[in-house]
Specification:
The chain is an alpha+beta fold. It is built from 4 helices and 8 strands. It has a 4-stranded mixed β-sheet with strand order 2-5-1-6. It starts with a helix and ends with a helix.
């Protein structure tokens, strides 16, 4: 009986580990991150960063992933217009490419695993300030808020990850009971 239980638990762990790894790989391939990097950490530059973010997200509202590269010039012009209207003549660099990132966790606990992601990056001026980040595709940024940044949006949950955590807890409880039964 104990051997069957161990084999069943090992099979469940292998299945869930493989599924989790496949999910993480698919996530990295399908996701497009957006970063808006401020000129500096100064209060004014951080405020301008958020204004640029709002204008760019509004412009991207109806842009498909396939049309993203064609929209880069317009996004740069939008960001420059926002800065000029606010008395700032900093240049804005806009790029779309793959970048490597360490594991990132937002303030509401959503994590993106380490890896290479397609990234839309807007760098204001020297780009020496803190950045705002969100997920552009699939659509997780809404207006001026990002589910990944804001406590005002509900936390993103993955049904798969919740089930995986439940299975992990069940395996731990079952192993603990089996060890207790052996004593």
């Amino acid at each position: 009986m104990m051997k069957k239980l161990k084999c069943l638990l090992l099979a469940a762990v292998c299945f869930f580990a493989g599924s989790f790894a496949a999910c993480r790989l698919t996530l990295r391939q399908d996701l497009v991150r957006i970063h808006v990097v401020a000129n500096s950490d100064g209060e004014r530059d951080q405020s301008l960063k958020l204004r640029v973010r709002d204008a760019v997200l509004a412009e991207l509202e109806n842009v498909s992933r396939e049309d993203l590269e064609a929209a880069l010039t317009g996004l740069r012009e939008t960001a420059q217009t926002v800065l000029r209207r606010n008395g700032d003549d900093s240049a804005v660099a806009v790029s779309l490419g793959r970048e490597r990132f360490a594991k990132t966790t937002s303030i509401d606990g959503v994590s993106l695993p380490a890896g290479s992601y397609e990234t839309l990056r807007l760098t204001i001026g020297d780009g020496a300030g803190r950045n705002w980040w969100g997920v552009l595709f699939p659509k997780l940024s809404y207006g001026s808020q990002s589910c990944l940044e804001s406590d005002t949006q509900p936390r993103l949950r993955s049904y798969f990850l919740e089930k995986l955590e439940s299975a992990r807890q069940w395996v731990e409880e079952t192993l603990t009971q089996a060890r207790a039964a052996r004593r």
